Amino acid sequence: MPDNIASHPLKKEITPPSCESTRGLAAPLGTAAAVTAGIAPDGGLYVPRSLPLLPWREWLDLDYSAVAARVVRLLAPDLPEAGVAAAAAVYGDGRFGPGSPAPLIEAGALGVLELWHGPTAAFKDMALQALPHLLTAAAAQVAAGREILILTATSGDTGKAALEGFRDVPGASVCVFYPDGGVSAVQEKQMLTTGGNNTFVAAVRGNFDVCQQAVKTAFTTEWLREALAERGVLFSSANSINWGRLLPQIVYYIWSYLEAVRQNRVKAGAPVNFAVPTGNFGNILAGWYARSMGLPVGRLLCASNRNNVLADFFRDGVYDVNREFFRTESPSMDILVSSNFERLLFELGGRDGEKIRRLYADLQEKSRFQVEESVLKACQAVFAGGWTDEDACRAVIRRVWREWRYLLDPHTAIAWGMAEDYRAASGDETYTIVVSTASPFKFAPAVLAALTETAPAEPWAALAELEQVTGWPAPQALRGLDTKKERREALLAPEEIAAWVSGKFAPPF
Fold first, then answer.
1. Most exposed among 75, 89, 243, 424, judged by the fewest C-beta atoms under 10 Å?
2. Measured between alpha carbons, how far apart are the two ends of the chain, in Å?
3. Distance between CA atoms of 342 and 332, rounded to whole angstroms?
4. In sequence order, which residues have a C-beta less than 8 Å from that of residue 480 and are 6 or more positions away?
5. pLDDT tens-digit series, residues 369-409
6. Catalytic residue positions?
7. What is the structure's pLDDT at 17?
8. Do 150 and 88 touch, CB atoms closer than 8 A?
9. CB 455 within 8 A of CB 448
10. CA pair distance 147, 164, nearest whole angstrom
11. Does residue 276 sit within a domain?
12. Which of the two residues, 408 and 182, has the higher pLDDT score?
C-alpha cells in the first residue's frame, strides 16, 4: 500500500459507502441521505465509513467533467446518475470560461492552481455550481416531495457562490448569513445583488465564528426542525459541513495532479505538495481525502493569516480560540473555529466519536482542547502549519508581480508565502502547487496598495485602477456590481436566527 494512504479504511470494490457522524451518536446514513441532511442530528459531521482506491493513472486523458463524474461515482455511487451527470456537466458548459475550469499555471518554481474562473470569481464555485445538482437529486431520492431549505454561514465567498448556485433552483431556497462588517465590500455587494426568488441574505452581529455557530445551532434546534417539517421543508447546508460540498473539492486536487503529470512538472507517481490558504479547513481537507485515496501527495501546507489557531495547533497540538480575533485583508480566513477540522481529528484519532465529543465539549466550555501526542504526530506527518501577517502578505504580492508578472489575491499570497517559507526551512524541494482561491480583483484595494502603496478606498475605483496598472482584465462577474440594486433581509443578533427562519419559512398556520 502506498505510504501516502492514511489509516482510513480502504476498499477496491465500488459499493455504496455509508456515512457516519464524527460524534458517534447518529445512525449511519447512505451518502445520498447524508448529503441531504447536511449535518448530523448529534451535531457531528458526516464522513464516509470507507474510501475507494483512486485509479488516477487511468484518467490522464480525461477532461475535467469526466474526472469529476468518476470521482463522485466512486465516493457516492448511491447518488442518482442523472444528478451526478448534471453536476459534472457544469465544468464544461461555459460558466467557468472557455478553457480549463481549473488551470495549472507556472509562476517561478511553483505551480498555481487557479480556482476562480467561475461565476463569482472564487474557488467556492468549483463545488457550489455542482452541489445543487447533487443535493436536489439526493433529496428527490430520500425525501421525495419535500422542499429543501439551505442555511449557510459565510466569511465572504461561500455566500455568493451558494446564492448563485442555488438561485431559482426548483424545490430549494437558500439563506446566507454573514458577519456584519466582516466581509469585503465586493463580497457583500455580490451577495446583496444576487436576485432570484429563492435567495435570502441576512447580516449577523459578531464575527464569523459567532455567525457559524448560530447557524449550526439553528440546524440542531428541534422545535425549528419540527416546525419546518410540518410545512414539508427539510434543512440542508451548502457549507463545507455538508459532505456533498467536499466531493467536488476533492476533484480539483486530482485534476491538478493529472495536469502536473501532463505538463511534465512531475513524473507519474512522484509526489507533489499543496499550499492552501485555510479558514474553515474544508479546502485543505479535500486534499487530505484525495491523498488518503492514493493520490501521490507529500505534504499539505496549511497557511493562515493572523488568526493563526491552526498554525499553533500543528506546532503543539493545542487548539485554543481564547485569543484576539483580527479582521484582516484576507477576510475569508478570519476564522478561529474551523468546522472541518473535526473531520480530520476524527479520522486521525481512531475514528472515535466519544473522543470527538469530549474535545468539542472542552472547546465549548473552555475555548480550547489538546489532543494526544499520537494524534498530533499523525497530523504533523501530513500537515505543516504556518502563518503570514499583512505586511508580509503585501510584500509577497508585490514581489511575485515584480518578478513573475503574476497577480495574487491576499489569500493566495499567504499560501505562496508559506510555500516559500516551508521550502526554505525544510529543504523539501517537492514540486509544490499553490491553491489560488480568489481573483485578485475581489480584493482590489488591498492588492493595489501592495503594488503601489496607495489605493482608493472605494473598491470600484480600485478595481479599475488595478486593471490599468497591471493590464489584467477584471472578471466579468465583478463588473457593474456598484450599480446593481441591493437586497438585505435583516440584521440579526445570533440568537435571533432560528426565530427569523421560522417566521419566514414556517409561520404559524
1. 424
2. 59
3. 19
4. none
5. 999 999 999 999 999 999 999 999 999 999 999 999 999 99
6. 124
7. 58
8. no
9. yes
10. 18
11. yes
12. 408
Residue 233 phi, psi dihedral angles, 5° rounding: -115, 135
Task: Please give the Cα distance from 422 to 301 (Å, whole number).
Answer: 8
What is the total count of domains within the chain? 1
Query: Which domain covers residue 431, as residue numbers?
Result: 104-119+244-475
Locate cell 484519532: which residue?
A: 349
- What is the spatial distance between Cα 8 and Cα 152, in angstroms, rounded to a whole number? 29
Q: Which residues contact 159 (CB under 8 A, 6 or more apart)?
A: 152, 176, 177, 178, 183, 187, 191, 201
Cβ-proximal residues to 203 (8 Å cutoff; 6+ apart), any chain: 177, 178, 179, 180, 488, 490, 491, 492
Distance CA(89)–CA(66), nearest Å, equals 8
User: Does 428 fall in a domain?
Assistant: yes
Residue 22 to residue 292: CA distance in whole angstroms: 17
Task: Collect all residues with Cβ–Cβ distance below 8 Å to 365 and sequence separation of at least 6.
Answer: none
pLDDT at 418: 97
Residue type for 69, please?
Answer: A
pLDDT value of residue 2: 45
Across 73-89, average pLDDT: 95
Is 351 inside a domain boundary?
yes
Q: Evaluate whether residue 79 is within a structural domain.
A: no
CATH number at residue 312: 3.40.50.1100
β 147-153/233-237 pair status? parallel
Comparing C-alpha atoms, which of 237, 267, 245, 251 is closest to residue 172?
237
